[in-house]
Amino acid sequence: MDVAPRIVVLTGAGVSAESGLQTFRSADGLWYSHRITDVATPEGFARDPALVHRFYDQRRADALAAVPNAAHRALARLERDVDPGLAIVTQNVDDLHERAGSSHVIHLHGELNSALCTACGSRLRWTATLGDRPPCPECGSRTLRPDIVWFGEAVYHLDAIEAATRACETFAVVGTSGVVYPAAGLAALARAHGARTVLLNLEAQDGGFGYDEVRLGPASEVVPAWVDEQGEP
Ligand code: BJW
Description:
The chain has 233 residues and is an alpha/beta fold. The chain has ten helices and nine strands. The protein has two domains: 142 residues, Rossmann fold; 81 residues, 2-Layer Sandwich (SIR2/SIRT2 'Small Domain'). Strand 7, helix 9 and strand 8 form a beta-alpha-beta unit. The structure holds ligand BJW.
């Protein structure tokens, strides 16, 4: 990042819900139709790679067909008009923040449009399917997997994320249940280093962290309204 962020925004599945992408833990969420241990752990992938490829090939197609909503667009506007260093730390594996125009997006749980070769370690931009077991363009072995962080695996870019979190003045959390770590611990880290913390979510987080401010409602409404106020003196 060229300019240190004054504002860091942590996003989760709720920010993309109104773009038609399923969340995980709602009544109609992905974890009600798929077992986490089957599709989001390295052990599940080792047991049944075809099932895991089907799951992520479908989600990649869904994300490709989705378009950014008013919340993604408002966060891009916040960077353009208020904080050129604004960092978005997203747990989401879609690219809707980038397509809305945000330029500092850090994906801590990986990306659907990336493949990881388990033989040579290459990370490759990948928008096609993986279920047909294509060869790795770098080493030729048919060992590509979704470049997604599953339970028990180390998240990406944690040092940079924690540095930005410690340095920011405002830490906003949008559309996440706040149950998956280490993301769930970032608001407390920001607060410990003096940041103001804000939750913008459809509903209160269970057993949640005591945010300085909470605004409940659909992201497409609460995020643009919050963004409108950030440029005010
Ligand atoms: C709306 C809305 C609208 C709806 N508008 N809002 C400390 C304590 C306890 C456990 C642990 C710990 N540290 C680590 C762990 C273990 C584990 C963990 O956290 N377990 C907990 C479940 C207990 N964490 C890990 O294993 C992580 N790895 C790790 O820590 O490694 C350590 C290590 C270090 C060194 C070497 C090796 C290891 C990895 C976590 C990986 C998470 N992966 C997933 C799936 C892969 C990505 C994918 O397929 O997309 O990531 S799980 C899933 O949950 C996905 C999401 O990114 C993540 C968070 O979900 P999110 O975004 O919050 O969605 P929901 O559905 O839960 O919530 C949506 C919210 O939106 C709701 O509140 C709605 O109300 C709201 N909403 N519509 C606004 N329109």
